[in-house]
Amino acid sequence: MSPIAALAIAVALLVLNGLFVAAEFALLAARRTRLDQLAAEGDRRARAAANSLRELSLMLAGAQLGITICSLGLGAVAEPAMSDLIESLIDPIPLSEGSVRAIGFALGLAIVVFLHMVVGEMAPKSWTISDPERSALLLARPFRGFTVLFRPVIRLLNGLANLIVRLFGIPPQDERAMSRSSAELLLMLEASADRGMIEPAAHELLARALRLSGLVAGDAMTSRDEIVGIEADQPVDDAAVVACRSGRSRLVVYDDDLDNPQGLIHSKDLLLLEPSARATTTTRDLTRPILRTTADRPLDDLLVEMRNARQHLAVVVDDLGTRVIGLVTLEDVLEQLIGDFRDESDVPLPRARRD
Question: Which domain holds residue 157?
Answer without folding.
Answer: 3-167
